[in-house]
Amino acid sequence: MQTLDNFIDGKPSASRSERSATVYNPATGEPTAHVPLSTAEETRAAIGVAQAAFEGWASTPPLQRARVMFRFKALLETHRDDLARLISQEHGKVFSDAKGEVTRGLEVVEFACGIPHLLKGEFSPNVGRDIDSNSLMQPLGVCAGITPFNFPAMVPLWMVPVAIACGNTFVLKPSEKDPSATLMLGELLAEAGLPAGVLNIVNGDKEAVDVLLTDPRIQSVSFVGSTPIAEYIYATASAHGKRCQALGGAKNHMVVMPDADPQQVVGSLIGAAYGSAGERCMAISVAVCVGDEVADKLVGMLEEEIAGMRTGPGTGVEPEPHMGPLISREHRQKVLGYIDLGVQEGARLVCDGRELVVEGYENGFYVGPTLFDRVTPEMRIYQEEIFGPVLVVVRVGSFDEALQLVNRHEYGNGTSIFTRDGDTARQFEENVKVGMVGVNVPIPVPMAFHCFGGWKRSVFGPLNMHGPDGVRFFTRMKTVTRRWPTGIRAGAEFSMPTMK
Ligand code: NAD
């Protein structure tokens, strides 16, 4: 079995750690690689490499940094299928979905190609007589990123292109469950002409992460993962004086109004709930039906659609399955446990994915599409993030009740409403306490030039990923107020200066 390397100073670098984790092909259940769990010392050495590269990179004109991004974008396009195959092999998602992930990551690179424009800053002439004021957006230094398993290319691409285009250097700790696609991004950036040491990838777990959170040379920490870890990352990084953006878990509701087009709702819901086997932070896991009539109709139609769904390996099978396996054996057990729990809690199990066996892939980590009806807010299957192909239907009596339900949930990542009524949609947009809102759009993932991030316990820290927030996060603002010598000809001032 292959042993994966770290990627340090522009090239692969073997770890000397005695600890490692196993990477699996979730479609077959077979182990495919060992990934080193790097030591604290190796992580500190990677920070040293990034620190040494900082000065040269920070002083490289933004236009030249952008040119690296343009070449990187072209390489991502050339290697889109290779990356997607790696993602599918280690994550399990189907090939077309993996290609979509690469494209969404590539769009952040396109955004970063505009960095000279994004770093122009502000200028105000004559803020006081003969005095001008302007802002400088300067890089922070060495930035760190810690990423989850569910988007091994896209989530690193939310952070790295913006950070390095702004002139920072970076140490990235990918998920130990599927690191190969992330490592390939490092290789492609080197091929694009990124100077050695600007991006370093350290495989590992808590031992490596704790160094990134506490080492005084790290200026910022970007994290995406589950809420308990996001909270820990935010608290620890902040306590060590670093700026931090930590994105956590989700339980995304889709509100279905009685006037919504049922066919459109079902088509949208089924993809949003079961695509990528529900392992998306923007997956819809709760359908909130306004009125029993809507719920009865929707549940009946979903049941029919689910009966036609194919679950199987992400590559090598024609026609392509609708969804693949879960990431690991342990996660499969956890999801199965939630389905058992839903039955115990008294929800009506309409479609049961527990017994699914995929012929020829009997050891894969599969769970079939699962649907619960008559779920109530007191149930744990409603409250907790399951992160699997499990959709729950909650019935409410009115729009106001639906809105309150969404707003009372501890998570606030994404949500959507399906309706034909503009006034209802507008009320929803205005009053829902969620960071990303869709109107007749099931997965409202913002484009790269907008910001990605939730509210409530789905995010810790004020600045979200990419878009204007990303540039703000990865730069330090300096404001210069400037007067040239003729302004002081009148002599010294002893009173508090005010603009004249
Ligand atoms: P996770 O929290 O288990 O792991 C995320 C990262 O943190 C990994 O790199 C992991 O190695 C590291 N980590 C794990 N335990 C740690 C610890 N005790 N100390 C320090 N580091 C630790 O998350 P995951 O299972 O990889 O990803 C799934 C989760 O990510 C879901 O909860 C999902 O909602 C969330 N997610 C959120 C978003 C978002 O935008 N809000 C996007 C993608 C995924």
Automatic annotation (TrEMBL):
One Pfam family this chain carries?
Answer: Aldedh
Checking Gene3D superfamilies in the record gives: Aldehyde Dehydrogenase, Chain A, domain 1, Aldehyde Dehydrogenase, Chain A, domain 2
Q: Name one GO molecular function term.
A: oxidoreductase activity
Q: Does the keyword NAD apply?
A: yes
- The EC class name is oxidoreductase
Protein's UniProt keywords contain Oxidoreductase: yes
Name the UniProt key words of this record, in alphabetical order: NAD, Oxidoreductase
Q: Which PROSITE patterns match?
A: ALDEHYDE_DEHYDR_CYS (PS00070)
Aldehyde dehydrogenase domain ranges (all copies): 17-480
* CDD domains hit by this protein: ALDH_F6_MMSDH
Domain of life according to the entry: Bacteria
Question: Any idea of its EC number?
Answer: 1.2.1.27
By its UniProt entry, which NCBIfam families does this protein fall under?
MMSDH (TIGR01722)
Instruction: Report the protein name in the record.
Output: methylmalonate-semialdehyde dehydrogenase (CoA acylating)
Q: Which organism is it from?
A: Stutzerimonas tarimensis
